[in-house]
Amino acid sequence: MIYWDYAAAAPPHDEVARTVEQLMRLHYANPSSLHRAGAEAAALIERARQVSAAALGVLPGEIRFTSGATESNNLAIKGAALQYTGRGRHIITTEIEHPSVYESCLQLQAMGWEATFIRPDAYGMVNPSEVAAAVRRDTVLVSVMHVNNEVGSVQPLSEIGRVVKSANPRTLFHVDGVQGFGKLPGGPRDFGADLYSLSPHKIRGPRGTGLLYVKEGVQLFPLLSGGAHEGGIRAGTENLPAIVAGAKALRMAAERRGEFVSRILPLRNRLLAFLRGIPEFTVNSGEEGAPHIVHFSYPGMKGEVMARQLEQLGMLVSTRSACSSRLAEPSRVLLAMGRGESTALGGIRISFGDEHTASDVGALEQALLGAIKALKIVEGGMR
Ligand code: PLP
């Protein structure tokens, strides 16, 4: 079996898995406890904060640990909206955000906030001038993702950050950086972001931990009530093993980005060219997309059917993002990009990791040809 679903979850580095196990056994003390074992645990978390901050190019005091990027996104959006109601009740996002952003905005809308959803172009690109035009005096927050998790489109974030601030300097800018970090240059400071979410398990770190960069001076209303952990915005005993191992994964991803891209981009480009040559497929990823994601559709054929066929041929792929892949509806992202319903139902996402080779891509290409043939035989038989 070849695993092509790194954008959903990447296998942890050996060093990451070892660190989690060692820390679970050795540093089980609660970092809030006043005894020596607690102080040691607290020191490890502060060290992980420094390592994470260095990987992002920000201050340690600007890093908050959460349970994952879903929580980071919820906290950034709802925490900012609830904190800054005095500034207004309008938020802006895009139609192609991850559900943890999109649904947070819908929830605020149901609670009386106004939400503007910006539509992307046919390649999943958001136009900065459309964002700028939507910003108002009462816009509290703009949230735009770095890389779309379904089709891999890369948003012009530095420009979006700039136009948001020039339209309204008090509007906060949040970036969901989950699929961009370790794959593309740029961090929160480059984008002019006030808030930036990350998830270590997408970059070969452990699950159950996430990060939220909160720019110095920005306040968030806590969504969890409890102790005064994480600067008072995220109550709950810290997941020490995952936090420390996650910081290691962040450092490794930042250090190895250049190497990753130079190995993976040619493989992605080869697969894109192959897919474009197959008349049955519609390629949904643009030329300028992220180096690790390729998305295509087999219009008229449900993505699940194609994915199951590919699995029989030894390839584990996904139909879209993991969080939405069990939905039977057409992809919201593809519909927003202007694709028809049958294309939006027939999507397949291939996502690369650092372990893939040219021979893996060759095997995938053969499997794709085999899957088309098998599905045509089944279709023919059903007529
Ligand atoms: N944002 C994006 C763009 C994602 O791809 C994902 C995961 O698929 C998330 C947020 C949520 O991350 P987590 O799995 O850490 O909750």
UniProtKB/TrEMBL annotation:
PANTHER family per record: CYSTEINE DESULFURASE ISCS 2-RELATED (PTHR11601:SF50), CYSTEINE DESULFURYLASE FAMILY MEMBER (PTHR11601)
Pfam families per the UniProt record, alphabetical: Aminotran_5
Protein name as annotated: Cysteine desulfurase
Domain Aminotransferase class V residues, every copy: 2-364
Enzyme Commission identifier(s): 2.8.1.7
InterPro entries named in the record: Aminotrans_V_dom, Cysteine_dSase, PyrdxlP-dep_Trfase, PyrdxlP-dep_Trfase_major, PyrdxlP-dep_Trfase_small
Top-level division of the source organism's lineage: Bacteria
Names of the cofactor(s): pyridoxal 5'-phosphate
Signal sequence, renumbered to the chain: none
Keyword Mitochondrion tagged: no
